[in-house]
Amino acid sequence: MSHAFVEVQQAAKRFPGARGSDDLTVFENVSFKLEKGEFVCIIGHSGCGKSTIMNALAGLDRFSDGAMIMEGKEIDGPGLERGVVFQNYSLLPWLSALDNVRFGVRARWKAWDEAKVTEHSLKYLEMVGLKDVVERKPAQLSGGMRQRVSIARAFATKPKLLLLDEPFGALDALTRGVIQDELIKIWSQDQQTVFMITHDVDEAILLADRIFLMTNGPEARIAEAVEIDLPRPRQRAEIIKHPHFYPIRNYLVDFLVTRSAIMTSSELDGNGLRYPRAVNPIALAAAGDDAVDTPTAGDPAAIDTDQKLVRFTPKETHHG
Amino acid sequence: MDRTTTEWNFSLNVRAGLLAVVLLVIGLGLWEGLNQVPILGGGGGELSEYEQLMAGADQTAKVPPPSEVLVRAWEELSNPFYDAGPNDKGIGIQLGYSLYRVLTGYLLAAAIAIPLGFLIGMSPLMYKALNPFIQVLRPISPLAWMPLALFIIQDSEASAIFVIFICSIWPMLLNTAFGVAGVREDWVNVARTHELSPLATAFKVILPAAAPTILTGMRISIGIAWLVIVAAEMLVGGTGIGYYVWNEWNNLDLTSVIFSILMIGVVGMLLDLALGAVAKLVAYQE
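Above: the input entities. Below: the structure tokens describing the complete assembly.
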């Protein structure tokens, strides 16, 4: 049996409960696959364990249960083939922007001489539009610039899998938009596999090939894997005009607002290994004639009848 | 905006400088004025033989006035390195001996405290195991070690250096441990995701991250070491600024005592400034 590029199987995270009480299960029975070159976003409310999944993939944290495989090898500990961009940038404040990127490049290619390291680092800093401020320390850069340095550092080491933990969470909307465009640009050059946490539905649609939807914790699960079949290259201004945009967006928002809270884990747990159900909101909307009776035009919050995983109550349909 | 700030700083500095000079002049003036040898003979007359023997009419000895101290300072500083026998060496030589002892003991302490502090900071096990010893040893006055040091080492010079060593090790040890333990996990994670070896992590991430805290410890230590050397040299004798102060006291030369007190202060300030400059080099802003 051939493996996907990255596979996570039946992962769980539990914390020991206080004396006498049961363990707290943040999530369990989480399994998914990432294909090479794919851009996957994961969305869910705070506390569902997104960051734990990401940190485990980065090798910085461990699951209580479950296995992670990348290219046929188990993931055990951090490694250069997996790059990480943290929400709080994690730049080393005593190094200049250039030296922060060089730090990564030098660690990646130990045999390179200084000139080559610098040249390569500058290339990536230029890609994120920071050519003129490379000598500044992080404290002298704005939040957006710091995150750009962090992105440049991650991409410059050319990891096979790039993990982004809410990279734009602390940025204002305008800066966020600009850096999203830069991220798309730099990603489309190298075609790395990206796994990204976000809270922003629009951001996820703009960037992702697939979006994993997590139910609320504790005992969270990855409920669905929504396919985003919008044409690439995508642009923020153009994408909202695409007829598929709002159906997809509504579907996601509906999940976050209502369904994530009421989907119960027993509904989602099949026997043994269960991968998130692949959902295509557009196809759903076209096929699900019996369920689409909501006032919102093109609302995809429909049910495919052959899957018994999701059941809507009338209240839910209302919200949809 | 920037300009007004600079102007304000400038004028603040100037005004502070002026105020300091005024305070200095007032202080020295009071000191000088209150320490005048009384008008001779009470009314300009000849001194009696007794009065002459007693150095004027005043029965109580007075602290020498600043003018005398300044004259002495000029004499001493214009020829700081003369050596006219065991009990008569220039101030520069005496300070040199003290600095040599302080720096030797201090550098030995740094060579042990910083690596050990790294270990304690990185390993909770070592921290818990060594903490009781540190807590007991730290509050011991360095001079209390002196008899034991003299007995074991049997050399007064080395004993003085040991006392400096033992007093300057604690702030460096604790600050290093504290700084290393407090390095932000994000930065350590950066090292981990870049597959840095433990040694590379220590030198490229933890050391620069903890350097400002370590330097604070080093600055506290050099201050304490300079405080302690004076007392240690008073005990050990022979050479050094501490011995000089005590020797001049035995000579009843209070002018020299005051002058050497001032020199102790000036050298202590210079040591602190030097470490402050190093601290500036490794400082960073988060």
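Note for the figure: The interface with chain B takes residues 58-60, 77-80, 82-84, 86, 88, 90, 92-94, 103-104, 107-108, 137, 139, 157 of chain A (CB under 8 Å).
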